[in-house]
Amino acid sequence: MDVRVQAEPFKAGAEVEAFTAGASGAGAVVSFTGIVRDDSGRMAEMLIEHYPGMTERALQKIATEAKARWSLADVLVIHRFGALFPGEQIMMVATAARHRKDAFEAAEYLMDYLKSRAPFWKQERGPDGESWVDAKDADEEALDRW
Amino acid sequence: MIDVLYFAWVRERIGVPRERLETTAATVADLIEELRNREERYALAFSDLSALRVAVDQDLAEFDAPLDGVREVAFFPPMTGG
What we know:
- The complex is a heterodimer.
- Chain A is of the alpha+beta class.
- In chain A, 34% of the residues lie in helices and 35% in strands.
- Chain A has one domain (2-133): Molybdopterin biosynthesis MoaE subunit (Aldehyde Oxidoreductase, domain 3), CATH 3.90.1170.40.
- Chain B has one domain (2-76): Ubiquitin-like (UB roll), CATH 3.10.20.30.
- Chain B has 3 helices and 5 strands.
- Chain B has a 5-stranded mixed β-sheet.
- Chain B starts with a strand and ends in a 6-residue tail after the last strand.
């Protein structure tokens, strides 16, 4: 299990390759990569604030829970903080399992929990000023299915 | 003494990222009441608790969580990771 919270960029492709190579015995690897999206077309950058200490703790807890619920060979979570430009990779999760169902479900679980239980806050910055991104009710409701 | 941390717009409204406070509050809710009575900026930040989340010693908690033995309390809006 590998949980990383970092300001530096990462390369999702290379991460998946290394993760796959390390997950011996796995028959399935699922990965998700989140990209900074600019819906308004006017965003200069996205600032990600986090709670150092609690962030790592919360992500470890979510990853540990996923390992307890599904039969997983390994779990990887990377989440960046700081100023990011539209199009940059912001975070990724990868799961390795014997069978694809475990890998898919665990990856979705990690994403659902990471969105509303890990202490990150997004702020969009552009010529119109700065605005904090509101949490969506749908993100909270997504936890109900687990 | 207790460390109180603020994040995102809560931090902006209060004006500092963290502060060390002397308090006799028994619960998170008591601490909020104490802060509200202290200055207008706290009253503003804590005006709508449904828009706030709290962590006690770096674990998400409820507003009625006890503060006995707690070292760190953090207030922030609902999280928007991913």
